[in-house]
Design goal:
Blueprint lengths: L59 H10 L11 E5 L6 H15 L6 E7 L6 H12 L10 H15 L2 E7 L2 H7 L2 H7 L11 E7 L9 H7 L4 E3 L5 H15 L7 H11 L5 H17 L7 H8 L16 H14 L5 E2 H14 L7 H13 L4 E6 L6 E6 L5 H9 L2 H6 L1
Parallel strand pairs: 1-4, 1-5, 2-3, 3-4
Antiparallel strand pairs: 6-8, 7-8
Helix pairs in contact: 3-4, 8-9, 8-10, 9-10, 10-11, 12-13, 12-14, 12-15
The protein binds adenosine-5'-triphosphate (ATP) and magnesium ion (MG).
C-alpha cells in the first residue's frame, strides 16, 4: 500500500509553507482588524435602547401638550398629574425622560425641581415603589423593614427639608396596579393634605394600556380625565427621522445612505415601534462589519429583518399563482441590486421574465392586483410618494423582511410547475 504523500501541493511556482498556507499570514490578529477600524461604527452608545438623545425627534406636538399640562409648575405651589399611554416603542419613556431633564434645566433659576423615574416592572409592590422614591431623595435611607406609613412620612419630611418640587414618573405602571392596586398613587396625590405646603409633587403615570379605566374613582377625580396624553405609534416618516438621528450620532457618514434608512424604517413600519429601527440599524452594522464592508448594504438589513416577527413562512409562496410568482421574481432580481424600485419598473422587468418563461404577460390591471396580493402576504412593502406638485404618485417597492436572492431561488424552484397547471 502506498503511503500518503504529505506536504505535496500542486501549485507550481507558488510559495508553499510547511503548514500548508500559500501566503505567509501577516499577523496573528488580522481577523480583528475590522474591530474599531472606524469604517462604520464610530460610537456604539446611540444604538443602545437606554441612550437618551439630546432631542426627541418628530414629537414636538406631544411634547407641547405635556408641557401645557405642566403650565403651573414654575409657580411655588404649582403641580401636575398626567397619564401617558401608547403602544410599544412609541416613545413614552423617552418623552417623560426628556421632559424631566429639560424642565429641571429650564427652571433651574426659578423653582428647584428634581425627578425620579421608576420602572414598575421591577418594583411591583407599593412598598417597593415608595422605597425607591424615598431613596432617590436620600440614598442612605434604610431599604427594608419600613411600613408604607413610615415611608410616606419619611417622604413628607424629605420633601419639606429638601425644598424641591419632585416629579415622580411611574413607568409601566400597569404592573404595579395589577399587583398592588392604586393605594400608593392615591396616597401620593394626598401627600400635602395634612401639612401646610401644597404642590410638593407631580405624578406622571406611563402605560401601554388604558390605565385610567383601572384606577378607582377617587384617583381619577384627582387626576382629571383631561390629563391623559395618548401617544400614537410612529409612521414611516417618524421612524426614518429616528433612525437617521441614530445613524448620524453613531456611524461614519460615508457608511450609510438615505435608502438604507428607508429600508430599515419600512421594515419596522407595520409595528410603528422605534425600538425596532434602532435594533435593525445595530444589527445591520454588525452584519456589514463582520462581512468586512465599509458601508451598510441592503442585504445587511434584510438578513436581520428575516428574524423579526413578520418573517415570511416557508409556504407563503405557494399561495401565489404562476404569474404572481413571475412578477415577484422580477421584483427580486431588481431588488438584489437596489433598495427600492417603482411599479413601472415592475411591469418592464415582469415582461422580460415572461419572455424567459415563454408566456404572455398579463394586463397592467392584473399585474397591479398581483402586486397588492404580494404586499398583502407581507413579502414586499410599498410606499407611495407624490412626485412634484400634483404630478401624480409613484409607488416605491422594497423587500425589507427577506433577502431577494433567497426568495428568487425559492420561486425558481417552483414556478415552472405552477405555470403548467
Ligand atoms: N422621537 C424619538 N426620537 C428619538 N428616539 C426615540 C424617539 N422615540 C423613541 N425613541 C427611542 O426608541 C426607543 C423606544 O422608545 P421608548 O422606550 O420611549 O418607547 P416606549 O413607548 O416607552 O415603549 P414601551 O411601551 O415598550 O416601554 C428608545 O431607545 C428611545 O430612545
Ligand atoms: Mg417605556
Amino acid at each position: 500500500m502506498k503511503s500518503p504523500k504529505l506536504h505535496q501541493f500542486p501549485f507550481g511556482k507558488e510559495r508553499v509553507f510547511k503548514n500548508g498556507w500559500h501566503q505567509e499570514p501577516n499577523s496573528m490578529s488580522d481577523y480583528l482588524d475590522r474591530i474599531g477600524s472606524g469604517f462604520i461604527l464610530l460610537n456604539p452608545d446611540p444604538l443602545d435602547f437606554d441612550y437618551i438623545p439630546e432631542v426627541m425627534v418628530g414629537r414636538e406636538a406631544i411634547q407641547g401638550t405635556l408641557a401645557g399640562k405642566f403650565h403651573s409648575i414654575a409657580h411655588p405651589n404649582g403641580s401636575a398629574n398626567v397619564v401617558i399611554t401608547g403602544p410599544v416603542g412609541s416613545g413614552k419613556t423617552l418623552l417623560a425622560r426628556t421632559f424631566c431633564r429639560d424642565i429641571e434645566h429650564h427652571l433651574r433659576n426659578k423653582r428647584p425641581l428634581r425627578s425620579v423615574h421608576i420602572n414598575c416592572r421591577n418594583a411591583t409592590t407599593n412598598v417597593r415603589v415608595a422605597q425607591r422614591i424615598v431613596q432617590s431623595l436620600d440614598p442612605g435611607h434604610p431599604d427594608r423593614g419600613l411600613s408604607m406609613g413610615e415611608l410616606l412620612s419619611s417622604l413628607r419630611k424629605l420633601l419639606r427639608n429638601n425644598g424641591r418640587h419632585l416629579i415622580i414618573v411611574l413607568d409601566e405602571v400597569d404592573h404595579l396596579l395589577r399587583k398592588s392596586g392604586n393605594d400608593l398613587i392615591y396616597q401620593l396625590l394626598r401627600i400635602d393634605e395634612d401639612q401646610d405646603g401644597s404642590g410638593t409633587l407631580s405624578l406622571i403615570l406611563i402605560s401601554q394600556e388604558q390605565v385610567l379605566d383601572v384606577l378607582e374613582n377617587a384617583v381619577i377625580s384627582r387626576f382629571g380625565h383631561t390629563n391623559h396624553i395618548p401617544v400614537p405609534p410612529y409612521d414611516l416618516k417618524g421612524l426614518i427621522a429616528i433612525v437617521r438621528q441614530r445613524a448620524e450620532a453613531a456611524l461614519n457618514s460615508r457608511s450609510w445612505d438615505e435608502d438604507i434608512l428607508k429600508l430599515i424604517a419600512t421594515s419596522a413600519a407595520p409595528s410603528g415601534d422605534a425600538r425596532q429601527v434602532i435594533e435593525l440599524l445595530g444589527a445591520a452594522v454588525e452584519h456589514a462589519e463582520s462581512d468586512g464592508h465599509k458601508s451598510i448594504l441592503s442585504e445587511h438589513v434584510q438578513t436581520k429583518a428575516r428574524d423579526v416577527p413578520q418573517v415570511m413562512p416557508e409556504d407563503v409562496l405557494d399561495e401565489l399563482s404562476g404569474h404572481s410568482m413571475l412578477v415577484l421574481l422580477g421584483i427580486c432580481r431588481r431588488l438584489r441590486k437596489a433598495e427600492f424600485m417603482t411599479s413601472k419598473d415592475v411591469e418592464s422587468i415582469y415582461a422580460v421574465v415572461c419572455e424567459e418563461y415563454e408566456v404572455k404577460p398579463r394586463s397592467h390591471t392584473t399585474v397591479w392586483k398581483f402586486l397588492k396580493h404580494i404586499e398583502g402576504l407581507n413579502i414586499i412593502a410599498t410606499r407611495v410618494d407624490t412626485v412634484g406638485e400634483g404630478r401624480g404618485r409613484t409607488t416605491h417597492i422594497s423587500m425589507p423582511h427577506a433577502l431577494p436572492m433567497d426568495v428568487a431561488a425559492r420561486i425558481e424552484g417552483r414556478v415552472a410547475r405552477k405555470l403548467k397547471r
